[in-house]
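Q: What would this chain look like folded?
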Amino acid sequence: MTTPTTNISLSKAYTKGLGYIFLIAFLSYYVQYPALSSIGGIEPSNILFRRAFPSIYYPVDKGYIDADGLVELINLIGVATSMIIASGIAQHGLLYLLVTAIYYFLVLLGGQFYTFQWDILLIEAGFLTAVCFAPWQSLHVTTKDMSSVGCWPIRFLLFKLMFMSGIVKIQAECPTWQNLTALEYHFATQCLPGPLAWYAHQLPPFLLRLGVATTFVIEIPATIFLIVPWLRIRRIGAWMQIVLQVLIIATGNYNFFNILTMALCIPCMIGEDNSVKKWSRDTSRLEQHFRTIQTVICVLFLAISCKEMFHVEQYMTEEGKQMRWLKLSMTRHDCNNIAEKTLPTIVLFTLLCTFVSGVRLVRKNVTVSLGMHQLGFIKPSTLRTIRRRTSVVSHGYGLFRRMTGVGKASFTGINALSLPPSIVARPEIVLEAIIVDNSTSENDWQELNFRWKPGGIDRRPCQVAPHQPRFEWRMWFAALGSVQHNAWLVSFVDKILAGCPYVIDLLDEPELAAKKKRIQMVRAQLYEYDFTRLDTEWSRSIPGVDILDDDDHSAWWQRKA
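A: My prediction, written as structure tokens:
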């Protein structure tokens, strides 16, 4: 049974957790700023000031204000403030407004390296926490400041994030999501695979496709649990989201995004379920029955959703054996119908419950209106196609819309397991350079090593989250596009040719960092990467894969031009 003490503990966990996340974001920004956005960085800060803050560009351009010193000072203020929040010294709403405003300022000055959805998500979560959740009459969260209504905008934010992330996968009509094969590519083609990604890539197709189906269930129908008035159902939905995020953390490096998503689940666990107390004084047995009924309702709802979302197709093997496999039934048209007919009713019902529970206090009424704003897609005309809309404190989301690194098969048909093979072709830019010193003039091209991105085939994926190497992330996107849309890459090459120490520190080249050698020429090569495979029947059915011998596990990657 939920008690006020439990709610206070959960509230403190959320407020402190958000402080830690802001601290991680500020420290990550601080260590990368010199190479990325300083005066001597890839995108010089004076240019970014002119674009983001033209009103203060003149004193920066004339040297009246040291741009790098100003950014460093503001960043350190953000670090100090987030440490105060995370340590529990104070969690006043003004502190959250301050860290949110500072991070928004830094994001604008980050240029192309700070255009990720989780940066906007952190700003949106910080703003909602400051206005609706954090205390304003005291320095700490107390019983007097506790209001379950203040949790609703944050619950809506989590609902919006996860629901839109699921819907866009279907609206994009990507074949890997439609065929439930996305995980057969994801572990090798994600930006920075984690240490366990190689092992997850070896799992049999049955488990991987079941994992994709589970992801759809958690991201679409299960998100409804997050915004219902009943505490037990909300907690079931929150724990489902937490499990999904833990699995993502185990195999990938997505900075603070997964931790932030799990933190947003905490307000879903706050509240009191008084449904039975209203009807009876002897509540112990009725509460148990009511919790059981709620659990059964969740299971039935998910079972019906699975029946509507998936279907079983039959295959015939070469030996004449009949096989069955699970596939996605939902189409883009189905998603639009759900968004236009079902979703508005559910959302308006939940908002009505929120309004009724908070009608007594002005602050709570403001909270309700903010929750409606945060949904961002109340109108049916907007619901027909969910778009990613951007404003200062509200944003649309669409994570993993399409799977990248999908190779083309050299033949059609299905293999012995009655499943079409999934060929991974992760595009990766490899920079090569002629490195010389004062006493030699070698003309051999050498591959430049980076700290985190895939390079040599014998380099094992490493763990870097919750820090996000912004440069490596942009390199991943650059491999999917063209140089015309990635002018920063030309600037990077120019900086390392000029010997800029901050930019050279992005490389994992100790002799260049120590200025014992210098780069004379640079060229870029585009390769297709895939993880090496264990010797299994499924691996042997995929053309072109590198299958490891039993006594040779030194190569983690395979690549071809």
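Confidence is low (pLDDT under 50) at residues 360-369, 371-390, 410-418.
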